[in-house]
Amino acid sequence: MSRVRVAHIVTRLDLGGAQQNTLYTASHLDPKHFDVDVACGPGGLLDEEARRLAELPERPFNLRFFPSLVREVDPLRDLEAFFQLAVWLRETRPRVVHTHSSKAGILGRLAAKAAGVPVVLHTYHGFGFHDRQRPAVKGFYVLLERLCVRLSDWTLFVSEDNRRYAGRHGLALPGRNSVLRSGVKLAEFPARVDDPGKKKAQLGCGMHKPLVSSIGNLKPQKNPEGFVRVAARCLAKVPDARFLFIGDGELRSRVEAQVVAAGLHGKVLFPGWRRDAAEILAASDVFALTSLWEGLPRALVEAMKTGLPCVAYSTDGVRDVIRDGENGYLVEADDEAKMAERIVELLSDRERARALGETAAASIGREFDIDAMVRAQESLYTSLLE
Tens of pLDDT along 54-66? Predict the structure, then answer.
């Protein structure tokens, strides 16, 4: 096979599943067969890591930042980003453009077609529209996505539930889509923690106190405010429990104020992003996911592979991995009372928690492995070019 130039375009390298998987793919595509470019907007938490990865001698890739590529809707900057991406693609002449995230997915696919790129594909790690938006706003985004999906040669979804949701909105064209899981490094889970109590103490959670953890960006989708309310309900029944939400984002100041106002200071903690998240999961007793919509939450997959009993709102890709009562608990979105009830049950019944955790770990198979994900992308690029 002759060498193939592949360009990945993502809006910004924030610390999230789409961004982490994009960087992993860029740095692990077979260098004997692929030359790789990555384009994104600046200002993400993973920018420095991307620069480091791009310079690895065994698997280098070209990294390009476009200041006009921003997450917020900004017609002038969006138009500028489109033209800049189109010019860049004409100059670099990739044979494949693979886009990720909502803004980059729209602008990148339009620019790729304008530049005459032979193969264009997009991964929906989630959707830029959702049922909680005003109908006019959601309808506008759906129309944009319908236009772009018809300009795409292939569309990838990270969960079957996402594919079904996309189908209901005209975004899963027959014979031009497939499901490819958002991969994680399965071999790294569970992380080795010799003394879970010591790890808890280092986090300020108390060496012998039960710990409920969550991971995600502090934004409306991940619903950290709901996490605090659920924690308050649980603490009324299990006062020595501690709740930890790993992540950062636009809602941080609001949720921290909420914690103080509820009298939960020292009991509900927001430590920001942590590089030892895998170790924290291994030291935790329960994983709780209060997201209101999802693609396929990698943090949930990591928690399940760690062997944690998980309680999550029954949304999108979550339903792909949790079978209620078998390998975790599903709760209807916004049912904070039921969420708290399930968490308290698991904190109180350690045998039930252990059984659910063991079944959860066994249910995460090779389809979730990140290296298998990269190999599948290589095969897809090749087949689409042929």
Answer: 999 888 999 999 9
Q: How far is CA 262 from CA 203, 229, 235, 300, in A?
A: 21, 9, 11, 27
pLDDT under 50: residue ranges of the chain: none
Question: What are the start-end ranges of the E strands in the chain?
Answer: 4-12, 34-41, 62-65, 96-100, 119-124, 154-157, 177-179, 211-215, 242-246, 268-272, 286-289, 310-313, 329-331
Distance, CA of 202 to CA of 4 (rounded, Å): 47
**What whole-number distance in Å separates Cα of residue 294 and Cα of residue 222?**
8
Topology (CATH) of 186-367: Rossmann fold (3.40.50)
113: its two tokens: 């077609």
Write out the H or E segment, with its range, that includes residue 258.
helix 252-261
Q: Is the peptide bond before 190 cis (omega within 30 degrees of 0)?
A: yes
Listed in sequence order, the residues at least 6 apart from 48 whose beta carbon sits closer than 8 Å to its beta carbon are none
Beta pairing partners, 242: 211
What digits encode the pLDDT tens for the residues 243-301?
Answer: 999 999 999 999 999 999 999 999 999 999 998 999 999 999 999 999 998 888 999 99
Amino acid at 147: L
Q: Which two tokens stand for residue 20?
A: 């982490």
pTM of structure: 0.90
Q: What Cα–Cα distance (Å) separates residue 295 from each residue in 217, 236, 318? A: 14, 32, 8
The CATH architecture to which 4-183+369-385 belongs is: 3-Layer(aba) Sandwich (3.40)
What strand order describes the sheet that includes 154-157? 62-65, 34-41, 4-12, 96-100, 119-124, 154-157, 177-179
The single residue listed with the structure tokens 């200002």 is 43
Q: What secondary structure does DSSP assign to 106-170, as a single string? A: HHHHHHHHHTT-SEEEEEESS-S--TTS-HHHHHHHHHHHHHHHHT-SEEEESSHHHHHHHHHTT
Q: Where in the chain is the domain with CATH 3.40.50.2000?
A: 4-183+369-385, 186-367
| Terminal alpha carbon distance of the chain | 11
Q: Give the span between the Cα atoms of 118 and 216, in whole angstroms.
A: 36
